[in-house]
Amino acid sequence: MKRLFVLSAFALTALTSCKKDEEVISVRSYIKATLNGKQLNFSSMSTATSISFDKDYMLSVIGIDTTTTQPSAITLRLTSSNPISEGTYTSLTPANATGIFNLGDSLSKVFETGIAEKAVHPFSMKITSLTEREVKGTFEGEFNSIGYATGDTSKLIFTKGEFDVLVQ
């Protein structure tokens, strides 16, 4: 009985002395935007990856919309010779802000930013909060068909885009 009491006291002490993490990370990761008046939610497997090598820095935000019969995917990417930080990045600066959108499961329905030389609505991405664990921001702009060079001038314009995802 004495041994059981000692073990119980030890377990209780160990459990009550545990310290909670100071920062609570939300699991609300999402990417959402409006396309042709329709709200898209890329909340399935939405995540961000941050990579640096020598003096090259990249932040990639990825999400999948599985709420439709044809799941779609979006990738938003920033590249820079300086560390990625809070601020606005555009497709007007070569290799700075880019986006890729795959409509459904067909590779022939891929749209990308920066393909059209004179986009009416250039792509922009604004980082409003960036930590080691989470990135938040907004995006909007024109995505052109990857067949643009061969005459396919179809384009999609995303508005009211926003994201809040965990960095892996």
- Could you state the oligomeric state of the chains shown? single chain
Q: Helical element count? A: 1
Report on the biggest sheet: 11 strands, antiparallel
Number of E-type strands: 11
Rounded mean pLDDT is: 79
What is the CA-based Rg, rounded? 22 Å
| Outline | globular
SSE series: HEEEEEEEEEEE
- Note the beta-strand portion: over 45%
**What level of helicity do the residues show?**
under 10%
Structural class computed from helices and strand pairing: mainly beta
**How many domains make up the 3D coordinates?**
1
Low-confidence stretches: 1-22
- Alpha carbon gap, first and last residue: 49 Å
Task: Characterise the protein shown here.
By secondary structure, the protein is mainly beta. The protein has one domain (25-166). It has one helix spanning 2-16; strands spanning 30-35, 38-41, 44-53, 56-65, 72-80, 87-90, 97-102, 110-112, 124-130, 134-145, 155-166. The model is unreliable at 1-22 (pLDDT under 50).
Briefly summarize what is shown.
By secondary structure, the protein is mainly β.
Annotate the secondary structure layout.
Layout: H1 2-16, E1 30-35, E2 38-41, E3 44-53, E4 56-65, E5 72-80, E6 87-90, E7 97-102, E8 110-112, E9 124-130, E10 134-145, E11 155-166
Antiparallel strand pairs: 1-2, 1-11, 3-4, 4-5, 5-7, 6-9, 7-8, 8-10, 9-10, 10-11
